Amino acid sequence: MNERLKVLDIWVDPLDRGMARSRVLSFLETGKRPHAIFASNPEKIFSVPKDPELLLAFKNADILLPDGIGMVLAARILHGCRFPRIPGSEFIFDICDIAARKGYGIFVYGAKEEVNSASVDNIRKRYPNLRIAGRANGYVSETDMPALVERINESKADILFIALGSPKQEKWFARYKDSLKYVRVCQGIGGTLDTIAGTVKRAPAIWCNLGLEWLYRLLSDPSRIKRQRLLPVFALKIILARIGWKKQ
Ligand code: UDP
After folding, report:
1. SS3 183
2. pLDDT tens digits for 94-111?
3. Distance, CA of 237 to CA of 248 (rounded, Å)
4. Which ligand 1 atom sits closest to the C-alpha of 163?
5. How far apart are CA 70 and CA 165, in angstroms?
6. What is the DSSP letter of 201?
7. What distance in Å separates the CA atoms of residue 70 and residue 54, rounded to the nearest whole number?
8. What is the mean pLDDT of residues 119-145?
9. What mean pLDDT, rounded, does the chain reach?
10. Which of 170, 193, 194 to mutate to test the pocket of ligand 1 (most atoms within 8 A of CB)?
11. Which helix or strand (DSSP H or E) is residue 35 part of?
């Protein structure tokens, strides 16, 4: 198994898609507990280390996907390690593909009701053989949470997609993982259901191939500047770490 790499104060797994898929398959075939798959990206550098509950959930994940070009370049600069980007918003389809071919069931939890329902319809169209064991929107109250967990268990889903955004989805997993009886793979997919439902557009392939998905998202939704202004800070931190500069 490739060793997890430290990038500033968080981590990333140096995997390619084939390796990540094999791990998912082994979690499904031989796992005895729910395994977490979370996205590791530059935004997390600014949120994870500050929140002890999130930090623990993130650190304990079974796969930390190299979700964005930022982590891929940072790992190359800091560790000389080369691996491709695996966006979480694409890896959901790798998992659906495995599930459809091997007969595993999925439960889709998160996003607004209409987004959840439309994205499940689109997943069903794309994978007619996939067993969709259940779905629920992401606005379930704390009081109703035990009933939701019960529904997930009754559905006997092997795979759970949680689309609550970060840090909600990581914390949800940490809190409820021990109550999940059959789930073996759980991916935190953030705002991916919005793109599957078509309410938010993903960047065209050419932008993604050039590593410029972040720029496309910024141009199509300028309010993301609040989040993306952290990217140059991330780049600077990586350069400083590379030259061995330490804060006094
Ligand atoms: N969301 C949810 N329940 C909540 C808060 C958010 O289901 O209590 C959903 C929201 O509707 C959206 C997603 O979580 O679909 C958050 O998307 P965002 O792009 O902010 O997440 P990221 O991918 O950046 O983690």
Report:
1. coil
2. 999 999 999 999 999 999
3. 15
4. 14
5. 19
6. P
7. 20
8. 98
9. 94
10. 194
11. strand 35-40
Quick one: pLDDT at residue 6?
96
166 C-alpha to ligand 1 centroid (Å) = 7
Work out which ligand 1 atom sits closest to the CA atom of 192: 23
Residue range of the domain that includes 60: 5-197
Q: How many structural domains is the chain composed of?
A: 1
The minimum-distance atom of ligand 1 relative to the CA of 194 is 15
Using the mean position of ligand 1's atoms as its centre, give its distance from the Cα of residue 163 in Å. 6
Collapsing DSSP to helix, strand or coil, 89 comes out as helix
Query: Tens digit of pLDDT for each residue in 137-180?
Result: 999 999 999 999 999 999 999 999 999 999 999 999 999 999 99
CATH number at residue 127: 3.40.50
Name every protein residue with a CB atom under 6 angstroms from any ligand 1 atom.
110-112, 138-139, 163-166, 168, 190-191, 193-194
Average pLDDT over residues 130-141: 98
Q: Is residue 240 part of a domain?
A: no
Does residue 239 fall inside a structural domain? no
pLDDT digits (tens, 9 = 90+) for 7-16: 999 999 999 9
Q: From atom 11 of ligand 1, which residue's Cα is the shortest distance away?
A: 111
Residue 32 forms part of a structural domain: yes
Under the banding of pLDDT at 50, 70 and 90, the label for residue 36 is very high
Confidence (pTM): 0.92
Q: Are strands 185-188 and 35-40 parallel, antiparallel or unpaired?
A: parallel
- Residue whose Cα lies nearest atom 6 of ligand 1: it is 164
In a domain, 47, yes or no: yes
Ligand 1 nearest atom to the CA of residue 188, by list position? 25
